[in-house]
Design goal:
The complex is a heterodimer of chains A (266) and B (258). Chain A has 266 residues and is mainly alpha-helical. Chain A contains 12 helices and no strands. The N and C termini of chain A lie far apart (40 Å). The longest helix of chain B is centred in the C-terminal third of the chain and has 17 residues. In chain B, a hairpin with a 1-residue loop joins β8 and β9. Helix content of chain B is 27%, strand content 26%. In chain B, the strands form 3 sheets. Chain B has a 6-stranded mixed β-sheet with strand order 5-6-7-3-8-9, sandwiched between helices. Chain B has a 3-stranded antiparallel β-sheet with strand order 2-1-4, with helices on one face. Chain B is α/β, with parallel strands linked by helices and 258 residues long. The chains are: A mainly alpha (266), B alpha/beta (258). At the A-B interface, α7, α8 and α11 of A face α2 of B.
């Protein structure tokens, strides 16, 4: 393997670990649509960053955080369902981002700082050594939180009201899981792309859940699946000079289909 | 005797819909209260207020002398059996994991993994589920799930047990078993019990007091003192009740106009 490819593969594996590990929480907390919405919410941040010539990652991260926490708080205040709030904010964010990116490309022919398309489907050209450190910290953080608060997380997912009665900080757990989800999505943008990152945090948890009925085994399976698909997808993308996001997602989707057939046969 | 639970002039609304109106009730230590009333009469709302899940719009709620919303020490003294339909049916946990969740209440002493394992298995044994510890939640029958939830509520040896319709989906044998365990636990320690039920006939023989709730509290006394008038006020129609306790079976009949 080309030595220059290692940081990209390592970044992808760490991303796969972070996404796969929290996939269990995302699936059972019913945050799948939220993840999809927050990733699309980043289009607003990417468009704004390109238009203003700001660094893309921090602005995209901020927009994902604002999206997740905004949706997490809005329904409480306005008696609006979460999926309606996500649907409205997702559309507005995509429209805003596309409009700004369109104006930017009309004004600037050279498009310094990148094209919107690179952030939509992911690009290995956008992955640098610094990303590996961020992703290592994220993967370590997610795994540590899961290990330390495992039983509290199980109670929170299984019986949220029981968790409140026990005196757990359910609101903090909810907003904390949304914030980690937003950070993961922002870090995943370069590799998987805004349009496809949602799949990385949904498919591994669902697939592992089809194959085993132990919560800890679901997390281990989803983490392994996410890391393996990310590694294979990145190497294949470099080999064939294709964006990595679609390859990783199709690999995960293939495993999901096989698991679905296997689970049905049992 | 100290009140374990007290509600004073409590009112609660969901939006513009009144769920409880000026309800006052106190429960002393060691007493078993059967909370009955029609659907939408405020029974579950009262439990939610006692568990700190809702705050009253008027009045005060105290559990072990504490405000259940802002205080926390009461949590270690309370066991709660919620309605089964509130759980995700396919969540990947075992019976043992569900029971051990009862040891996460705030204020409980720190225990080693071995101690927790022992307590969890003792609670499962107690409800006849010792050999089912490793079975997944989804593979348990309705009655077995109920037993696991009762074991979870009792694993930390609470002083107050709150049960919300615990016999829904449970056969007659399962109901009898639950009544036996409740009687045993009450004999062993001064366990206070508040049990929400829609089945007056089943709850009356086993409780010390009946509380009839339909937005307001229409009766709170020994079951044998329950009049047809109080029942009629609670259910909004003539009602009758047959007691199956140790005394002579008897019937309380409301004034029927037909």
């Amino acid at each position: 393997m080309n030595i220059e490819l290692w940081p990209m593969v390592l970044a992808a594996v760490l991303l796969g670990i972070a996404c796969g590990a929290q996939s269990f929480v995302v699936v059972h907390r019913r945050l799948a649509f939220m993840g999809h919405g927050a990733s699309h919410g980043m289009i607003a941040g990417v468009g704004l960053a390109l238009y203003m010539h700001w660094p893309v990652f921090p602005v995209a991260l901020l927009s994902a955080l604002l999206f997740s926490l905004g949706v997490g708080i809005l329904p409480k205040r306005d008696d609006m369902s979460s999926d309606s709030a996500i649907g409205i904010m997702l559309s507005a964010a995509v429209a805003f981002g596309l409009l700004l990116a369109g104006v930017h490309e009309q004004v600037h022919d050279d498009c310094g700082g990148g094209h919107l398309e690179e952030f939509l489907v992911g690009s290995l050209d956008q992955v640098f050594v610094g990303d590996v450190y961020f992703l290592a910290a994220l993967a370590l953080g997610v795994l540590t939180l899961l290990a330390v608060y495992w039983r509290q997380i199980l109670l929170f997912l299984f019986d949220p009201e029981g968790a409140r009665v026990a005196g757990l900080q359910v609101r903090a757990l909810h907003l904390g899981s949304l914030a980690i989800l937003a950070i993961t999505i922002a870090l995943a943008m370069k590799i998987a792309g805004v349009l496809l990152v949602g799949a990385l945090i949904i498919i591994p948890g669902v697939t592992a859940g089809l194959l085993t009925q132990r919560a800890s085994a679901v997390v281990i399976g989803a983490t392994t699946m996410g890391a393996t698909a990310a590694a294979i997808g990145t190497v294949a993308a470099a080999q064939w000079e294709l964006p990595p996001g679609p390859i990783i997602v199709l690999l995960l989707f293939g495993v999901f289909l096989v698991a679905r057939l296997f689970a049905r046969g049992r | 005797m100290d009140n374990v639970v007290s509600l004073e002039h409590v009112s609660f609304r969901y939006g513009s819909t009144t769920a409880l109106e000026d309800v006052s009730l106190s429960v002393e230590a060691g007493v078993f209260v059967g909370l009955i009333g029609p659907n939408g009469g405020g029974k579950s709302t009262m439990l939610r207020l006692l568990l700190g899940l809702e705050e009253p719009h008027n009045g005060t709620v105290r559990v072990f002398g504490q405000n259940p919303v802002s205080d926390h020490d009461w949590r270690r003294k309370v066991g709660h059996v919620p309605q089964q339909r509130e759980f995700a049916p396919r969540f990947p946990v075992t019976a043992e994991q569900v029971v051990s969740m009862g040891l996460l209440a705030r204020g409980l002493p720190a225990r080693t993994a071995n101690e927790e394992h022992e307590l969890t298995h003792r609670a499962l044994e107690r409800v006849g589920m010792g050999d089912q510890a490793h079975r997944p939640w989804w593979a348990l029958s309705g009655g077995q799930k109920q037993r696991v939830l009762i074991a979870r509520a009792m694993v930390h040896e609470p002083e107050l047990l709150l049960l919300d319709e615990p016999t829904v989906g449970v056969d007659a044998r399962g109901q009898d078993q639950m009544n036996t365990w409740l009687a045993e636990w009450r004999k062993e320690r001064a366990l206070t019990v508040i049990l929400v039920s829609h089945d007056i006939g089943a709850i009356s023989p086993i409780c010390d007091r009946l509380a009839c709730l339909n937005l307001q509290l229409h009766f709170h006394d020994r079951p044998e003192h329950l009049s047809g008038e109080a029942l009629e006020k609670t259910y909004g129609c003539p009602a009758e009740l047959v007691f199956h306790d140790h005394s002579m079976p008897h019937r309380v009949v409301g004034k029927h106009e037909h």
